[in-house]
Fold this sequence. Notes:
Blueprint: H1 2-16, E1 29-36, E2 41-48, E3 51-58, E4 63-77, E5 80-85, H2 94-101, E6 105-113, E7 116-123, E8 126-134
Antiparallel strand pairs: 1-2, 1-8, 2-3, 3-4, 4-5, 5-6, 6-7, 7-8
Amino acid sequence: MKNIFYLILISYTFLSCFQKKIDCKDFKSGTYESINKENNLKFLIERDNDQQIEKAVDLKKNKIIVEAKVSKIIWISDCEYKLLVDTVKTKANNIEKYINSKGGLKNRIVKIQNSCATIETTFEDKKMILEYCKIK
């Protein structure tokens, strides 16, 4: 019985060495989906290191309500970044201009599970938790 236990333990250890560990760097580029159940919205996010393009879909109407909002990403560390609306590529509204003037939205990847990251977003005294799941 001990031999079977050790064999299983060694096999597990050996196999786990070959599995790719997902970390914060894996969320710097790619295509993601985030669902906000409170507002019934789905966000489609395309990210390429220093730029993010976001679309918002109203799930009740199955209609795009925000078309291609472009934001700049400023990476502070592998797991922390600031998001500012790119006012050259996107027409920013007054709220987005105010957020930019205060340094943007501060984001921190707090948990990674499978292909999803839990991201804590803060601005002034408000905090929001979102989950981004990598779809590409």
